[in-house]
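tl;dr need the bound structure. longer version: we got a ligand (zinc ion) that a collaborator sent over and nobodys looked at where it sits. i said id run it. heres the input, straight from their email, havent touched it
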Amino acid sequence: MITQFKNKWLLFNQASRCILCELNPANATQLCHSCLTDLPWISHACLRCGIPLNTRDPSPLMCPSCQKKPPPFEQAIAPFEYRFPVDQLIQLAKFSNQSHYLNPLAELLCSHILSLGIATQMPELIIPVPMHRKRLLERQYNQAALLGRQVAKKLHIPFNTKLVIKTSDTPHQADLDRKARQKNLRNSFQCSQKPPSSVAVIDDVMTTGTTAAEISRALKRAGCQKVYIWTIAHTAKQLHLR
Ligand SMILES: [Zn+2]
Ligand SMILES: [Zn+2]
């Protein structure tokens, strides 16, 4: 009886502690105020591709690359740079079967989306970056789909994992440079049905934007008009603008 009570007490206390410092009481995001403040928040980002910009100019800006050649999606957003401790949480969720680490990240992504207000128009549908079925069998779950389901539920937007499918099992993008990534992924995504006019694609991390661009092209070929890319983090190093 006493052991049972003690276990419940421990569980209750663990649940209310910050998952990062394990010391301070946590809020709804499962983090404490000071760990939340210390996260690698992106303060300025390119209006279009979401790359972090190192600038003091508070007005909305587009990075030189988007000015030269805009990507095929309307807007990519990410609350964080892909560095400690966000990278660790994502890696744990992805490879160590600890998908519960996605919960606080989904919560923070939703508040970031909502904080952008009217600048981000809400899409009609949320989809995850799909995995090829062979990889899905290996990994057993698609972390982008787990994340997408949570975000869709919190924002009351329909969710679909079957709209876009990955038709070829391409090598891991992480081992390739930008040109090779583009070649690797060309035409590897397809729409299985007609998409609505606006869709948000969810992933954990955006790196060069090649995957986001390929999925956007597939959606637009099938008739979608607006594609938004929502990720937890952006890997790109800050672009220094004057
Ligand atoms: Zn903490
Ligand atoms: Zn840009």
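gonna send this back to them w/ a short note. Residues 1-38 form one domain.
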